[in-house]
Amino acid sequence: MEAVRSVILMWGDGVLPDPSGALDLLQRGLEHEDGLVRWKATAMIADGAPAEDRFLPGVCAVLQEADTGARRIATAALGRYGPRAAVALADLRAALFSDVPPHEVLRTLAARGPAAVAALPDVLARAGHPDVLVRQHVLRTLGAIGAPTPEVLRTLERIEQGDDRPEVRELAATVRVQLLDR
C-alpha cells in the first residue's frame, strides 16, 4: 500500500505514472486507507482523469469524509459523472446544507440534469440565498433539471420580479421561458 500511496501522491503533484497501469492505480488510490491518498485520487478524477463507473463508489465514499476539502473535491468529481452519479443523489442533497459551498453542489446537481429531479425541494430552498453566485447556480440547476412544476415556476417568477440583482432577474426570466417552451 505504501507504493500506491507514493505513486498517487506524486501523480497528484504532476508526476505521471506508467500509463498501462494508471487506472488500476487510481482505483487502488480511491480504496487506500490514507485519507490524503483518497483525496488526491478523487482530485485526479475531478481534474480530468477518466470518470469510470468503477471509481464511483470510491468517490462517493470521499463525499462522506469529515474533511470539507475532500467533500468539495468529491462533489466536483461527481459532477463529471453527470446522470451516472444517481447513487450519490441523497449525499449531494445533504451536502447542499453542509459546509460544502452550495454553488459547487448545485453545479454537480445541474450536471445530472433531469436525473436530479428529486433534489428540487432542496434546490428551491436555496433560491433566496444571500450570495448572488448561489442564486445564479440555483437558476441554472432548475433549468438543467427541466421540471416546470408550479412551485418552480412561482419561484422563478418571484425571483424575476423581486431579486435585487438585474442579472439574476434576467437569468430567472430566461430559465422560466425555457421551461415553459419544453
What's the layout of helices and strands?
Elements: H1 2-12, H2 22-30, H3 35-46, H4 56-63, H5 68-79, H6 89-95, H7 102-112, H8 120-125, H9 132-145, H10 150-162, H11 166-180
Helix pairs in contact: 1-2, 1-3, 2-3, 3-5, 4-5, 5-7, 6-7, 7-9, 9-11, 10-11
**Large-scale geometry:** elongated
Give the terminus-to-terminus CA distance: 52 Å
Q: What radius of gyration results from the CA coordinates?
A: 18 Å
List low-confidence stretches: none
Element order, helices and strands?
Answer: HHHHHHHHHHH
Average pLDDT: 85
Number of DSSP strands?
0
Name the structural class: mainly alpha
Percentage of residues in strands: under 5%
Summary tags:
11 helices, elongated, 182 residues, 65% helix, mainly alpha
Explain the overall architecture:
By secondary structure, the chain is mostly helical. 65% of the residues lie in helices and 0% in strands. It has helices spanning 2-12, 22-30, 35-46, 56-63, 68-79, 89-95, 102-112, 120-125, 132-145, 150-162, 166-180. Helix 1 (2-12) crosses helix 2 and helix 2 (22-30) crosses helix 3. The longest helix has 15 residues, at 166-180. It is elongated and about 60 Å long. The mean pLDDT is 85.
Short description:
By secondary structure, the protein is mostly helical. It has helices at residues 2-12, 22-30, 35-46, 56-63, 68-79, 89-95, 102-112, 120-125, 132-145, 150-162, 166-180.
